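Prompt: For my understanding, could you write out one protein's sequence and backbone structure tokens?
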Amino acid sequence: MLKEAKIKLKLKAQLAAGDIEKLPFQNDSFDLVTSTGVLSSFTNPTPALSEIIRVTRKNGQIKILDLGMVKKKSFRLGLVQKLFLLANDHIHDYQKLFAQQGQKCQSKKVGMDGIFQLFIIKVKK
């Protein structure tokens, strides 16, 4: 699948498959690490977040687009959240999870009344 993607997209980048909880890269390998819709599938995303931080260089960025905690819920948003939870997705408090790792996380609401959020972390080491 990765070989096909590289050919179709004409990428000059290296593509690799791996376990997000044990990434096949050395410490401080990347200036930018992104994740879209992956971490909401984990009951406990902490090991994956630790790995993402490990492979990101000091002052590098982590950008995560995923389901986010919303404090003020409209009826529609409450219904949407319940649908995601029925599909076995998990809604995490990324601010808290990254704080536990010594990182500051900023968030921006990007869709569906704020349930989809972009989380941006400038990595401190």
